[in-house]
Amino acid sequence: MIINGLISKISKINEKNKIKIIIYYKNQYNNMYVYDILLNIRRGKNQAIYGQDMYKIYTKIVKNLQPTKNQDKKYCCIYIDTQTDKEIIIKSIETIKNTEAGKLKEITQEKLLKILIATLANTQLVIVYNYLEDMSNKREQLFQRLMRHDVLFIAGFQKLPKKNRMPFFNSHIFVNKEYFDSQKGEDNIDITYFFYIFITLFIVLIFLRIVSLERIGDIIASALWFGLLVFRTFSYIGGKV
Asked: Is residue 196 part of a domain?
C-alpha cells in the first residue's frame, strides 16, 4: 500500500524530507505512472494514459488503493476489455456488492444502471479500460452519465481520438503527456517539404517541355526562378514559411 495516509501526512513533513519521500515512491512505481495515478484518484480526477499496459496498471491500483483512516468511502476498481455496456454495469454491481450476477442478466440495462447508481453512495468506483480512441458514441454517453455520479475513469489509448471525441478526452488528466510528446516526435516525420520539392520539379519539367529550346540559358534561369516561386507558394499555403 503506497499512499495510504500519505497525502494527509505529507503536508506535515518539512520540504526536504517531503521531496525525498516523493522521489522514493516515484522511483518505486514510476515505470507505470502508478504513483501519479493513485494521487489523481484520491483527488477525484479522470485520467488518460498513452501507450501503457492498462491491465498491469489495473492490478497495481487494486493492490495499492485503500481508503485512508478519515475516509468513509471504500474503493472498488474494475477492468473492462470487450464487455458490452450492460456487462460493464453488471460487473460494477458484482464488484461493489461482492456477489455473483445471478438474475442481474435478466434485468434491463436502464434498471441495472439505477441499481448501480444506488450502490455508489458509500463506494468510489474506478473503471480502467483501453482504446479510448475507439469508443462508440453510445459508450461515451454511458460513461458521461456515470461521471455525473462521481465514477472515475482511467483510459488507455494508443493514438489521439478523433475530433468528435476530444471533449471527452479533455475531461481527463493526461498522465504521461511528456512521454506522448517524445514518442510523437520520433514517430512522425514531416514529408511536407519533400512533397513540395517533388511537385515543384514536376512543374518545372513541364515548363521546360513546352517552351522553345532557343536561348536555353535564359530558359533554364527562368525555369529555376519559376520553380522557386512555385515552392515558396506551396510553402506559404502550407504554413511552413
From this structure: yes
